[in-house]
Design brief:
alpha/beta, single chain, 2 domains, 304 residues, 14 strands
Length: 304
Protein backbone atom coordinates (compact mmCIF):
# COMPACT_ATOMS: atom_id res chain seq x y z
CA UNK A 1 0.00 0.00 0.00
CA UNK A 2 1.32 3.44 -0.95
CA UNK A 3 1.87 5.81 1.97
CA UNK A 4 2.15 9.40 0.72
CA UNK A 5 3.91 10.33 3.95
CA UNK A 6 6.86 8.25 2.75
CA UNK A 7 6.99 10.33 -0.42
CA UNK A 8 6.68 13.59 1.52
CA UNK A 9 9.46 12.77 3.96
CA UNK A 10 11.73 11.38 1.26
CA UNK A 11 11.39 14.62 -0.74
CA UNK A 12 12.27 16.72 2.32
CA UNK A 13 15.32 14.59 3.11
CA UNK A 14 16.60 15.02 -0.45
CA UNK A 15 15.93 18.78 -0.58
CA UNK A 16 17.44 19.43 2.84
CA UNK A 17 20.43 17.25 1.88
CA UNK A 18 20.31 15.03 4.92
CA UNK A 19 18.19 13.46 7.61
CA UNK A 20 19.30 15.83 10.38
CA UNK A 21 18.48 19.13 8.57
CA UNK A 22 15.20 17.65 7.33
CA UNK A 23 14.29 16.57 10.86
CA UNK A 24 15.01 20.10 12.15
CA UNK A 25 12.94 21.66 9.39
CA UNK A 26 10.00 19.35 10.04
CA UNK A 27 10.42 19.46 13.83
CA UNK A 28 10.34 15.69 14.15
CA UNK A 29 12.72 12.93 15.29
CA UNK A 30 15.41 11.90 12.83
CA UNK A 31 14.62 8.25 13.53
CA UNK A 32 11.06 8.70 12.30
CA UNK A 33 12.28 10.15 9.02
CA UNK A 34 14.70 7.27 8.60
CA UNK A 35 11.93 4.71 9.14
CA UNK A 36 9.78 6.29 6.44
CA UNK A 37 12.60 6.31 3.89
CA UNK A 38 13.65 2.77 4.80
CA UNK A 39 10.07 1.54 4.40
CA UNK A 40 9.88 3.25 1.01
CA UNK A 41 13.10 1.59 -0.12
CA UNK A 42 11.88 -1.80 1.07
CA UNK A 43 8.62 -1.43 -0.81
CA UNK A 44 10.45 -0.41 -3.99
CA UNK A 45 13.23 -2.95 -3.37
CA UNK A 46 15.66 -0.18 -4.38
CA UNK A 47 18.25 1.87 -2.53
CA UNK A 48 17.29 5.54 -2.88
CA UNK A 49 19.81 7.12 -0.52
CA UNK A 50 23.31 5.99 0.39
CA UNK A 51 23.92 7.10 3.94
CA UNK A 52 26.69 6.56 6.41
CA UNK A 53 27.79 8.53 9.44
CA UNK A 54 29.93 10.70 7.16
CA UNK A 55 28.18 10.67 3.79
CA UNK A 56 24.77 11.41 2.33
CA UNK A 57 24.19 10.72 -1.35
CA UNK A 58 21.06 10.24 -3.42
CA UNK A 59 21.43 7.30 -5.77
CA UNK A 60 20.63 7.47 -9.47
CA UNK A 61 17.37 5.62 -8.80
CA UNK A 62 16.71 8.02 -5.95
CA UNK A 63 17.12 11.02 -8.25
CA UNK A 64 14.62 9.56 -10.73
CA UNK A 65 12.16 8.74 -7.95
CA UNK A 66 12.62 12.21 -6.41
CA UNK A 67 11.51 13.96 -9.62
CA UNK A 68 8.26 12.00 -9.69
CA UNK A 69 7.70 12.27 -5.93
CA UNK A 70 8.34 16.01 -6.05
CA UNK A 71 5.76 16.42 -8.83
CA UNK A 72 3.23 14.44 -6.81
CA UNK A 73 3.81 16.56 -3.69
CA UNK A 74 3.40 19.73 -5.75
CA UNK A 75 0.08 18.52 -7.07
CA UNK A 76 -1.08 17.79 -3.54
CA UNK A 77 0.02 21.24 -2.35
CA UNK A 78 -1.72 22.94 -5.27
CA UNK A 79 -4.90 21.02 -4.50
CA UNK A 80 -4.75 22.08 -0.86
CA UNK A 81 -4.01 25.69 -1.81
CA UNK A 82 -7.01 25.74 -4.14
CA UNK A 83 -9.35 24.58 -1.39
CA UNK A 84 -7.86 26.98 1.18
CA UNK A 85 -8.28 29.91 -1.20
CA UNK A 86 -11.93 28.99 -1.70
CA UNK A 87 -12.43 28.91 2.05
CA UNK A 88 -10.47 32.17 2.41
CA UNK A 89 -8.56 30.44 5.17
CA UNK A 90 -4.79 30.09 5.24
CA UNK A 91 -2.91 27.88 7.69
CA UNK A 92 0.53 26.39 8.22
CA UNK A 93 3.91 27.30 9.63
CA UNK A 94 6.37 29.70 7.99
CA UNK A 95 9.98 30.00 9.14
CA UNK A 96 11.63 33.32 8.36
CA UNK A 97 15.14 34.64 8.97
CA UNK A 98 16.02 38.34 9.09
CA UNK A 99 18.39 40.77 10.75
CA UNK A 100 17.68 42.55 14.01
CA UNK A 101 17.15 45.88 12.24
CA UNK A 102 14.75 44.40 9.69
CA UNK A 103 12.75 42.68 12.45
CA UNK A 104 12.54 45.80 14.61
CA UNK A 105 11.93 48.47 12.00
CA UNK A 106 11.13 47.10 8.54
CA UNK A 107 8.63 44.26 8.81
CA UNK A 108 7.21 44.37 12.33
CA UNK A 109 3.95 46.11 11.42
CA UNK A 110 3.57 44.04 8.26
CA UNK A 111 3.97 40.85 10.27
CA UNK A 112 1.30 41.99 12.71
CA UNK A 113 -1.07 42.87 9.86
CA UNK A 114 -0.48 39.57 8.09
CA UNK A 115 -1.09 37.46 11.18
CA UNK A 116 -4.26 39.39 11.97
CA UNK A 117 -5.54 38.60 8.48
CA UNK A 118 -4.45 34.96 8.69
CA UNK A 119 -4.85 33.86 12.33
CA UNK A 120 -4.21 30.18 11.53
CA UNK A 121 -0.72 30.85 10.18
CA UNK A 122 2.20 30.24 12.56
CA UNK A 123 5.26 32.42 11.96
CA UNK A 124 8.62 31.34 13.37
CA UNK A 125 11.00 34.29 13.11
CA UNK A 126 14.74 33.72 13.44
CA UNK A 127 16.37 37.08 14.14
CA UNK A 128 20.11 37.17 13.54
CA UNK A 129 22.66 39.41 11.86
CA UNK A 130 24.60 36.36 10.69
CA UNK A 131 24.07 34.88 7.23
CA UNK A 132 22.73 31.35 7.54
CA UNK A 133 22.21 28.47 5.15
CA UNK A 134 18.50 28.42 4.38
CA UNK A 135 18.40 24.84 3.12
CA UNK A 136 20.30 23.13 5.92
CA UNK A 137 18.52 25.24 8.55
CA UNK A 138 15.05 24.55 7.18
CA UNK A 139 14.27 28.24 6.59
CA UNK A 140 11.40 29.02 4.22
CA UNK A 141 12.46 32.60 3.49
CA UNK A 142 15.01 35.21 4.50
CA UNK A 143 15.15 38.98 4.17
CA UNK A 144 18.66 40.31 3.68
CA UNK A 145 20.04 43.78 3.25
CA UNK A 146 22.97 44.23 0.88
CA UNK A 147 24.84 46.96 -0.94
CA UNK A 148 26.13 44.75 -3.77
CA UNK A 149 24.53 42.00 -5.81
CA UNK A 150 24.13 38.80 -3.83
CA UNK A 151 26.25 35.89 -5.06
CA UNK A 152 24.66 33.57 -7.57
CA UNK A 153 23.19 30.51 -5.90
CA UNK A 154 20.32 28.08 -6.10
CA UNK A 155 18.27 30.48 -3.97
CA UNK A 156 15.43 32.46 -5.47
CA UNK A 157 16.07 36.20 -5.05
CA UNK A 158 13.26 38.77 -5.18
CA UNK A 159 13.81 42.52 -4.84
CA UNK A 160 11.86 44.09 -1.97
CA UNK A 161 12.97 47.71 -1.65
CA UNK A 162 15.75 50.24 -2.19
CA UNK A 163 16.91 51.89 1.01
CA UNK A 164 19.32 54.81 1.34
CA UNK A 165 21.38 55.44 4.46
CA UNK A 166 21.66 58.94 5.92
CA UNK A 167 23.68 60.60 8.66
CA UNK A 168 21.74 61.55 11.80
CA UNK A 169 22.43 63.42 15.04
CA UNK A 170 20.46 65.17 17.75
CA UNK A 171 19.91 68.94 17.57
CA UNK A 172 21.55 69.24 21.00
CA UNK A 173 24.71 67.51 19.78
CA UNK A 174 24.97 69.77 16.75
CA UNK A 175 24.33 72.85 18.86
CA UNK A 176 27.17 71.77 21.15
CA UNK A 177 29.73 70.79 18.51
CA UNK A 178 28.63 72.74 15.46
CA UNK A 179 26.76 71.59 12.38
CA UNK A 180 29.07 70.00 9.77
CA UNK A 181 29.09 71.91 6.52
CA UNK A 182 31.23 69.44 4.55
CA UNK A 183 32.12 65.76 4.90
CA UNK A 184 35.57 66.71 6.21
CA UNK A 185 33.97 68.37 9.24
CA UNK A 186 32.97 64.83 10.29
CA UNK A 187 36.61 64.15 11.15
CA UNK A 188 36.15 66.40 14.18
CA UNK A 189 32.90 64.82 15.38
CA UNK A 190 32.11 61.85 17.58
CA UNK A 191 30.69 58.88 15.67
CA UNK A 192 28.59 55.77 16.26
CA UNK A 193 28.90 52.62 14.15
CA UNK A 194 26.63 49.81 13.02
CA UNK A 195 28.41 46.50 13.61
CA UNK A 196 31.23 45.68 16.00
CA UNK A 197 33.75 44.20 13.56
CA UNK A 198 35.98 45.98 12.79
CA UNK A 199 35.92 48.59 15.53
CA UNK A 200 37.01 51.30 13.08
CA UNK A 201 35.02 52.34 10.06
CA UNK A 202 34.46 54.78 7.24
CA UNK A 203 31.55 56.59 5.69
CA UNK A 204 31.27 56.36 1.91
CA UNK A 205 29.37 59.51 1.02
CA UNK A 206 27.82 60.56 -2.27
CA UNK A 207 26.53 64.06 -3.02
CA UNK A 208 23.34 64.63 -4.95
CA UNK A 209 25.48 65.93 -7.84
CA UNK A 210 27.45 62.65 -7.96
CA UNK A 211 30.59 63.69 -6.06
CA UNK A 212 31.91 60.91 -3.81
CA UNK A 213 34.25 60.85 -0.83
CA UNK A 214 35.25 58.54 2.01
CA UNK A 215 35.62 59.68 5.62
CA UNK A 216 37.32 57.40 8.19
CA UNK A 217 36.22 57.41 11.81
CA UNK A 218 36.86 55.73 15.16
CA UNK A 219 33.48 55.33 16.88
CA UNK A 220 32.79 55.72 20.56
CA UNK A 221 30.07 53.07 20.31
CA UNK A 222 29.76 50.04 18.01
CA UNK A 223 26.67 47.84 18.06
CA UNK A 224 24.73 45.34 15.96
CA UNK A 225 21.55 46.84 17.42
CA UNK A 226 20.33 49.81 15.40
CA UNK A 227 17.80 50.71 18.08
CA UNK A 228 20.64 51.24 20.55
CA UNK A 229 22.57 53.39 18.09
CA UNK A 230 19.52 55.47 17.24
CA UNK A 231 18.85 56.11 20.92
CA UNK A 232 22.53 56.95 21.50
CA UNK A 233 22.40 59.52 18.71
CA UNK A 234 19.18 60.99 20.12
CA UNK A 235 20.93 61.34 23.48
CA UNK A 236 23.68 63.40 21.87
CA UNK A 237 26.48 60.82 21.84
CA UNK A 238 27.46 61.42 18.23
CA UNK A 239 26.62 61.06 14.55
CA UNK A 240 25.33 57.78 13.15
CA UNK A 241 24.61 56.41 9.70
CA UNK A 242 21.37 54.42 9.55
CA UNK A 243 18.80 53.31 6.95
CA UNK A 244 16.45 56.21 6.27
CA UNK A 245 13.25 54.46 7.34
CA UNK A 246 14.59 53.68 10.81
CA UNK A 247 14.69 57.34 11.84
CA UNK A 248 11.48 58.66 10.25
CA UNK A 249 9.63 59.00 13.55
CA UNK A 250 12.57 60.80 15.16
CA UNK A 251 12.82 63.19 12.23
CA UNK A 252 9.13 64.01 12.66
CA UNK A 253 9.34 64.64 16.41
CA UNK A 254 12.64 66.53 16.11
CA UNK A 255 14.76 64.28 18.32
CA UNK A 256 17.05 63.64 15.33
CA UNK A 257 17.97 65.68 12.28
CA UNK A 258 19.84 64.80 9.14
CA UNK A 259 23.50 65.75 8.99
CA UNK A 260 24.78 66.88 5.57
CA UNK A 261 21.34 66.40 3.98
CA UNK A 262 22.77 66.73 0.46
CA UNK A 263 24.90 63.63 1.01
CA UNK A 264 23.85 59.96 1.01
CA UNK A 265 25.78 57.62 3.31
CA UNK A 266 25.00 54.49 1.32
CA UNK A 267 22.54 52.83 -1.03
CA UNK A 268 21.29 49.39 -0.08
CA UNK A 269 18.65 46.90 -1.08
CA UNK A 270 16.43 44.49 0.77
CA UNK A 271 15.90 41.16 -0.96
CA UNK A 272 13.70 38.18 -0.24
CA UNK A 273 15.47 34.83 -0.54
CA UNK A 274 13.78 31.43 -0.77
CA UNK A 275 15.28 27.98 -1.33
CA UNK A 276 12.92 26.97 -4.15
CA UNK A 277 9.60 27.76 -5.78
CA UNK A 278 8.83 24.07 -5.67
CA UNK A 279 7.43 22.75 -2.48
CA UNK A 280 6.46 26.10 -0.99
CA UNK A 281 3.41 25.82 1.21
CA UNK A 282 0.46 28.14 0.49
CA UNK A 283 1.30 30.11 3.65
CA UNK A 284 4.88 30.69 2.46
CA UNK A 285 3.75 31.84 -0.97
CA UNK A 286 1.10 34.19 0.38
CA UNK A 287 3.45 35.77 2.94
CA UNK A 288 6.16 36.22 0.30
CA UNK A 289 3.69 37.94 -2.03
CA UNK A 290 2.44 40.10 0.85
CA UNK A 291 5.95 41.34 1.61
CA UNK A 292 6.70 41.93 -2.07
CA UNK A 293 3.51 43.95 -2.48
CA UNK A 294 3.76 46.05 0.68
CA UNK A 295 7.28 46.42 2.06
CA UNK A 296 8.47 48.96 -0.50
CA UNK A 297 5.67 51.38 0.37
CA UNK A 298 6.35 50.97 4.09
CA UNK A 299 10.12 51.46 4.20
CA UNK A 300 11.47 52.08 0.69
CA UNK A 301 12.98 55.36 -0.43
CA UNK A 302 10.44 58.05 -1.10
CA UNK A 303 10.44 61.86 -1.05
CA UNK A 304 10.27 63.53 2.32
Amino acid sequence: MIDLNDYFYFVHVVEKQGFSPAARALDMPKSRLSRHVTRLEERLDTRLIQRTSRQFKVTEAGQVFYQHARALIEEMEEAEAAIQSRKESLSGRVTMSCSVGVAQFAIKDLVFDFLEKHPKVELVQQVTNQAIDLVSSGIDMAIRGHTEALPDSALIQRHLANVSWHLFASPEYLARTGTPESPYDLLKRQSLKVGWQPVTGHWSLEHTDGLKTTIPFSPQLCSDDMATLKQAAAKGLGIVSLPSYICRDELKDGSLVRVLPDWIAGNAQLSLLMPSRRGQSPAVRVLADYLLDNLKDRIGDRPG
